Amino acid sequence: MNRQIELDGIMKHAGNISVEDLFEPLTYSVEPFISPEYAQAERDLLWPKMWQMAGRVEEIPEVGNYFTYDICEDSIIVVRNAPGSIKAFHNVCSHRGRRLIDTPAGCNNASGANGRFICGFHGWTYDLNGKNIYIHEELDWKGGLTAEHTCLSEVRVDTWGGWIYINMDPDCVSLREFLEPAASILDPFEFEKMRYKWRQWVIFDCNWKTALEAFMEPYHVAGTHTQMLNHGDYYAYSEAYGLHGVSGFDQRDPELQMKQSSTITRAGKGKDPRISTYELQNEIYTTVNNASTTETLVNAAKRLVDELPEGTPADQVIKHWLASARADDAARGVIWPTITPEQMAKAGLAWHIFPNMSVLQGISFALCYRTRPYGDNPNKCIFESYAMERFPQGEEPKTEWVYAEPTAEAWGLVLSQDFSNMAALQKGMHSRGFRGTLPNPHQEQKVTNFHRNLANIIGAGSLRLLNK
Prior knowledge:
468 residues, alpha+beta, Rieske Iron-sulfur Protein, 2 domains, seven-stranded antiparallel sheet, 20 strands
């Protein structure tokens, strides 16, 4: 069947899916993952219209610091143009269209520091506000060039939580409106006070959505990370919040639920929560590339067996553990935000921030992911992950983006296990025998909400209720 005809024909299902429908058994086809036409629709209708996380404020601390963010054929320069001010421009000279800043071979972006941008073709020069300040032989234009003709094309830019977002649509909604209600739910974590611990990237043989969705739910733990089942239960919930979505650990038995149990700072599995909480935290830290928790939390959990009597209830173990870790961090100059148990419960475990960002958050740390298309190939993507923590002032690590092969040595056991699924998933969706996805209505609602929103934006999709 012609892919364009097929893409046009499946929209009749997508527009009929409501948020309430996400709680019911659904299916969607493989077109969003393998179709060149769908990838083209994303280039035309998704990426130019959406707020996208481009980087972190800490990457451009001084005037003149810049980095680039590339998405499909577009490249954006994000620059610190003045103290307390950030601007963004299309990375293209207004003369003949050459990119002003080239991405070095083997890098996922370009970065540097300069007081101006000079085109390598004819030397046209721009200041940090995008104004053209030099045109070679300008008199040859006989006065026909104006500031509007020759300035850089500006892109909307804003910040939230220390992240810098860009939007190429001048008529877009504000960043805050775009991020709600996720922003308000996550504000108490004060991500702006965290700093990079490490940041790595790799190229995968799969669609950008295939890679991103691998980090949208804990439902896969039982099949992918079997070693983690020794230390914790991974039954989970998933919930849509407008464009965005959240997942968290869940309990089928209401009597076992507690406000902290949906988050990463929860009791482990076992009769003695003093022991199991340490075993769970240590397992996470050592197998997720020293991320998803902190050394402070692991060390405080290790002392629980010495500091609390046997038989201490799980909720009291968690309360003591967090208070102890908070005091340990405060002693070294790391001050935690004040987050109530109710706020922790609502924030859950991890968020999908539409369209291409995932955040697993903790009180003093976060593990984040971003995926992007790789050129115009729907079967490849750029995958990036980074860990953040609160550090004593002046003791933040100096980090750069590092290309890392998808091995356990480079990424830790857990992430390498996730990576092992990527290409196999993409290949499987090309199979004539695959009838379409069967996402878990309770545990994978973030995924179906993602496709519901994509369908509404792009005007093509294949979500439908299984019983219709």
